[in-house]
Write a sequence for this structure.
């Protein structure tokens, strides 16, 4: 089993937490993981990309080759379209539907959604609204992990355990809200 | 602590701890910063090793020499361009009789994710005549540390370990080994070998050249430079080039004969052996064409060499699993064929509410009033003010250059010359430039944007707190009435403009200190306090 994921969004949207959640869940299932992150200058409000590779065998490198990603999981519609070259011909794309508009030339949202809808396997998730329902506006990213849960080669149980581990230090309430966000995403 | 998922930086740090370091010194710089941050977390938990940021890379390296002279193991960390600052100490240190193992962990940034150039530190290791290890995985980053320290003590030389961004900032699980204990403190037995007066330095230079033979012999036998026989195509990989070869290997018709270089000086005999059975040599090097450039000198026969210099691989940027396919004889991978939309870029920018934005806004308006002006700037978050919409800084070169370039421009006759520099950069390399400005009474206006932290690299401590800056500047001889403190908030916008106008009109050295905390740093402080 080999599963390559491109995670993307804008600096500050929680891409690294998504990577950590999926990577931790994979480790819980005894799988090997390699995950490349973006730190430093590139991160400040700019486009952020993380490569996450899961496998039951040795993983040769940290980068996903073009045409090899099983999944693009994006926090935001514009960013979801930036890395299509990485997607396998039958790969899936899941993205948050709400634009993160911090540039003067952000495209029309309808056009972006149309482009996403044209892809063979794509889903747009109202992540912001679902996070609001989970009473944790910051948890849009966990809504998206939930939305990807049926596509990922991982058990829901492992994802939940991973979230509990990641938010352990922040207390029970935050854990519950993030688990709720995960569930709302999974049922979306 | 088995099976930890660590960044390459963190794996290296843990490797250094388990190799028995007593101390670590460094200066923050992407992609190396997380090495020291990890060590500081270990220090907090366990009380050791001593893990300290220094005022700059040269200071860090020299502090480490002090650890070594007392027989203890020490790690120095910095980014590639940091070694330009530490080069004086580094290059000379190879002549010393290193006692406690001294390892320089250096992180290069091919592709310039967060840097101003792509310089390849392997050239520095050769220049200084010191060995260099180059890991290709988090596990190797951990494992190589023990050997780097052992070799440093065996040959009494500093040793370099070179990381690149992709390894520094990628996570994988590693297995750890039993930790070695620290060295006891013991002064170097022969202090003559630590004094580089010409007569003694000549002896040390002679010795280093003898040591260099041992370094080369190590390269021929170390398992980090494995040679395997395959087809009549010879492949040499260095650094992450190995990973991208492995990624594509299954699709290749024939498995080439292969030498991987994980240790330098690279094994010349093994290269000759590889070439003697091959018709052509392919090179996958992460970084500059370091080995490729030297290959012609080693191989006297007529043999085809393909790599970056021959144009078979891109010379700029990083290698990746895709751009190595051509040289390996593979076609590009099939990707999704859909009509692609033209997408606008999303470059990094100053955070919302960043104090630097307000500083640049008042500078911008005053600049617009003047017929001629120059705004030199420096390395840090505030360099992002060069991008739209602010577009205020006009030069960004290297740490500290804002002040000294401003002096040169002002002395060449330019009017209204301003230097914008951050608090940490000022302490790193700005002080000496200010001394020059004061000595010559240069008509420059230096604007220290003091946000109380090293912002760009994630909020490390600045070596001096904000209230210490005015006395430092005054102590260097700037007139008190031309040291102006202000708060870059929009409500003081007009007042701040007035201050800048006054200081630009003054034909001497002015220092404006714009003090307001980094909002990211504030957020972190609040989080920490919870």
């Amino acid at each position: 089993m080999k599963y390559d994921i491109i995670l993307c969004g804008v600096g500050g949207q929680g891409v690294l937490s998504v990577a950590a959640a999926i990577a931790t869940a994979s480790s819980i299932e005894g799988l090997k993981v390699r995950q490349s992150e973006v730190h430093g200058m590139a991160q400040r409000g700019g486009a952020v990309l993380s490569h996450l590779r899961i496998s039951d065998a040795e993983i040769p490198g940290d980068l996903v080759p073009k045409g090899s990603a099983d999944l693009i999981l994006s926090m935001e519609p514009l960013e979801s379209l930036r890395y299509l070259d990485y997607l396998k011909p039958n790969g899936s794309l899941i993205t948050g539907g709400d634009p993160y508009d911090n540039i003067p030339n952000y495209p029309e949202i309808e056009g972006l959604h149309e482009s996403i809808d044209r892809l063979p396997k794509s889903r747009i998730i109202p992540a912001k609204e679902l996070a609001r329902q989970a009473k944790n506006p910051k948890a849009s990213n966990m809504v998206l992990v939930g939305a990807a849960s049926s596509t990922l080669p991982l058990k829901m149980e492992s994802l939940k355990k991973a979230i509990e581990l990641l938010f352990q230090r922040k207390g029970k309430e935050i854990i519950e809200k993030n688990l709720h966000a995960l569930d709302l995403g999974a049922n979306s | 602590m088995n099976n930890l998922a660590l960044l390459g930086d963190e794996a290296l740090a843990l490797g250094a701890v388990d190799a028995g370091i007593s101390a670590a010194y460094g200066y923050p710089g992407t992609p190396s910063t997380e090495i020291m941050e990890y060590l500081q977390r270990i220090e907090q938990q366990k009380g050791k090793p001593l893990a300290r940021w220094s005022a700059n890379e040269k200071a860090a390296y020299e502090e480490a020499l002090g650890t070594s002279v007392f027989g203890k193991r020490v790690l120095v960390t910095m980014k590639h361009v940091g070694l330009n600052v530490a080069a004086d100490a580094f290059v000379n240190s190879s002549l010393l009789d290193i006692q406690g193992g001294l390892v320089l962990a250096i992180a290069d940034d091919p592709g310039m994710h967060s840097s101003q150039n792509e310089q390849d530190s392997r050239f520095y290791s050769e220049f200084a005549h010191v060995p260099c290890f180059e890991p290709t995985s988090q596990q190797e980053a951990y494992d190589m540390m023990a050997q780097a320290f052992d070799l440093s003590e065996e040959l009494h030389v500093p040793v370099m370990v070179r990381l690149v961004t992709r390894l520094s900032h990628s996570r994988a699980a590693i297995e750890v080994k039993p930790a070695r204990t620290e060295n006891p403190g013991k002064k170097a037995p022969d202090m003559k070998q630590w004094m580089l007066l010409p007569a003694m330095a000549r002896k040390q230079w002679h010795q280093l050249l003898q040591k260099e033979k041992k370094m080369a012999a190590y390269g021929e036998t170390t398992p980090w430079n494995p040679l395997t026989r395959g087809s009549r195509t010879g492949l040499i990989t260095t650094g992450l080039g190995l990973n991208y070869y492995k990624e594509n290997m299954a699709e290749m018709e024939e498995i080439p004969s292969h030498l991987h270089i994980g240790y330098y000086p690279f094994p010349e005999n093994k290269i000759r052996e590889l070439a003697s059975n091959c018709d052509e040599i392919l090179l996958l090097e992460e970084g500059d064409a370091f080995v490729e450039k030297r290959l012609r000198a080693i191989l006297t026969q007529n043999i085809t060499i393909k790599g970056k210099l021959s144009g078979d691989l891109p010379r700029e940027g990083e290698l990746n699993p895709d751009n190595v396919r051509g040289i390996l004889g593979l076609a590009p991978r099939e990707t999704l064929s859909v009509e692609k939309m033209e997408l606008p870029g999303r470059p990094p920018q100053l955070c919302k509410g960043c104090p630097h934005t307000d500083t640049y806004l008042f500078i911008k308006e005053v600049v617009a009033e003047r017929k001629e002006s120059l705004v030199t700037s420096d390395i840090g978050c505030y360099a992002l003010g060069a991008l739209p919409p602010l577009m205020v800084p006009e030069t960004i070169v290297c740490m500290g250059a804002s002040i000294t370039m401003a002096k040169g421009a002002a002395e060449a006759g330019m009017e209204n010359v301003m230097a914008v520099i951050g608090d940490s950069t000022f302490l790193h390399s700005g002080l000496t430039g200010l001394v020059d400005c004061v000595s010559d009474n240069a008509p420059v206006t230096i604007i220290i944007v003091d946000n109380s932290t090293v912002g760009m690299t994630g909020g490390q401590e600045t070596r001096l707190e904000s209230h210490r800056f005015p006395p430092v500047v005054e102590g260097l001889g700037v007139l008190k009435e031309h040291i102006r403190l202000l708060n870059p908030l929009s409500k003081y916008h007009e007042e701040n403009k007035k201050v800048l106008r006054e200081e630009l009109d003054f034909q001497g050295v002015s220092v404006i200190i714009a003090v307001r905390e980094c909002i990211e740093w504030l957020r972190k402080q609040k989080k920490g306090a919870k």
In short: The mean pLDDT of chain B is 96.
